[in-house]
Design brief:
By secondary structure, the chain is of the alpha/beta class. The protein has helices at residues 10-19, 44-60, 108-115, 120-127, 138-143, 150-166; strands spanning 2-5, 27-30, 66-78, 81-91, 96-100, 104-105. Strands 1, 2, 3, 4, 5 and 6 form a six-stranded mixed beta sheet that branches.
């Protein structure tokens, strides 16, 4: 089974590979695609749309059996609190399945900058004196002191979106 992942971010590709580890013969390939949403998706709708767009574009760049899209964003889940959110979508040419990864409230100083229009990745690098947090532990890794990594969080989202395709329960 050939699977295209709509990203060249090594953390996203590794998350998809881990989620597919129990599927014999799965071959995962990274595919450069456009999310079709802003660099910093805002709100659940925009984040899910980005994941779906990536999954569709990856699938269509095939031939692939499945396309996987992963998108991280920020959303106001509770009034006046911004949270990091992550979604995965899987597309088989006719249907989408979607699942969320964990979300976590952003610290006030980060949330204020994001609310004012900055992108989370550069804010994280600046606030925590890091280089390219998005390609390593991710914001969730920083905010959980490593208890949850970006890869493990994205892996759970991908596993959930894959479930209907691989479990035989749907």
């Amino acid at each position: 089974m050939r699977i295209g992942v709509g990203s060249q971010n090594p953390v996203k590709v590794a998350a998809a590979e881990q989620a597919l580890e129990t599927l014999p013969g799965a071959v995962v390939e990274s595919v450069r695609v456009d999310s079709g949403v802003p660099e910093q998706p805002r709100g659940l709708d925009q984040t899910v749309e980005g994941a779906e767009n990536r999954a569709r574009a990856a699938y269509q760049s095939g031939p692939y059996d499945l396309g996987i899209g992963i998108e991280g964003g920020v959303a106001e889940l509770v009034a006046d609190d911004y949270s990091l959110v992550m979604w995965a979508a899987v597309f088989d040419g006719s249907r989408f399945e979607r699942a969320a990864g964990p979300s976590i409230r952003l610290p006030d100083r980060v949330a204020l900058r994001v609310r004012d229009g900055e992108e989370l990745g550069p804010v994280m690098n600046d606030e925590f004196d890091r280089d390219d947090v998005a390609r390593s532990e991710g914001a969730i890794g920083v905010f959980t002191a490593g208890a949850v990594t970006r890869q493990s969080a994205l892996e759970s989202a991908v596993s959930g979106a894959l479930g209907p395709f691989v479990s035989g329960q749907y």
